[in-house]
Amino acid sequence: MANGWTSERKARQSAMIRAWKPWAASTGPKTEKGKAESSQNRQKALDTARQEIESAQKALAQAEQNLERLGQKPLHDLMVEIKRMLR
Predict the structure, then answer these.
(1) S-S: 34 plus which of 29, 62, 63, 84, CB 3.0-4.6 Å?
(2) Helix-strand-coil percent breakdown of the chain, rounded to 5?
């Protein structure tokens, strides 16, 4: 592999991590500041996802306009399905 991670190396690393179990010692944030920051992680992820969806919707609308401008009919069923997925 180009990045040096062969199947054997990945399997060995996976076994070491399972034996090490770093998640067992994880306790989460301890300070009030850390807890406050941590509590915002979900909201930040949701905001990012919303922005990505809006961007995809704008790109889709632009693609439809470009097709119409070129005199081509959009693949209606495909466009409807993509729009449904972006809701």
Answers:
(1) 29
(2) 75, 0, 25
> Read out DSSP for the chain?
-TTS--HHHHHHHHHHHHHH-GGGG-----SHHHHHHHHTHHHHHHHHHHHHHHHHHHHHHHHHHHHHHTT----HHHHHHHHHHH-
Q: What is the pTM of this model?
A: 0.49
Strands (E) in the chain, as ranges, are none
- Could you identify the residue written with the tokens 């034996």? 19
Q: Which two tokens mark 7?
A: 């199947």
- Residue spans of the chain under pLDDT 70: 1-2, 73-79
